[in-house]
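input
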Amino acid sequence: MAEAAKSDWPLEDRGVAYGDGLFETVLVRDGTPLLWEQHLARLGRGCRVLGIPLPAREHLEAPLVEAGEGLSVLKLILSRGSGGRGYAPPDTPEPQLRWRLGPFAPSAQHWQQGVRVRHCRLRLGIQPMLAGLKHLNRLENVLARAEWTDADTAEGLLCDSEGRLVEATCMNLFWQRDGKLETPRLDRCGVAGTLRAALLERAPIHEVDAFPAVLDEVEALWLGNSLQGLWPVARLDDAEGNPVRKWPIGPAQRRLQALAHEALGYPTIT
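output
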């Protein structure tokens, strides 16, 4: 296992050349990584699927000694390293672990007022083997995020190539329908977020197959990830930016948000 480094990434590294690797983005509060076990579990699953040796826990936690008081974000990038011939991976990978640690401030205004989101035209490819993983090849997300430039739109919703709702460009989806909490099933594609994992442990959230029409039936809609917490959605637009649905922000939105924020140490919004 090569020593962790902040820079000096060789161009022949397979993470650079092919997206052959994984990453985790971790909220750190006063030096303590939040949802750390969920991050380690997802990284471990990714390593098993890709066949990359998982670094020792002490290597993954080493950057935390540089975290000060307050909030920061730790980005860990694990690539297979260099070697192999073309796409063929090396027989004995020598993974490279790199990291970056910097200050962080969540979008607190979005917690209180809710956000405006839109549908994206891009469709995610279905690949069950990679479903749930946070791998380095995020071109679909990049192209989807390029579909809008207005500052009033906070996120875009993504469907797979068969039309099922999957996620937002960098957040997971949750909604309440007929009083029941639901989230898209992620067995075909999409990233299984660590906040999503924590909420599945804390609340009766059902994983479902659903198409965009389901959003006409929901009483509340949220987006969430392990950095930003949970944003209630106040307005949903189509892919052209035309409004298709609005929700008042009230008690229905606050209950699940409170559970998410408890897991991250964020304030309860009333």
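quick obs: The two ends are 48 Å apart (CA to CA).
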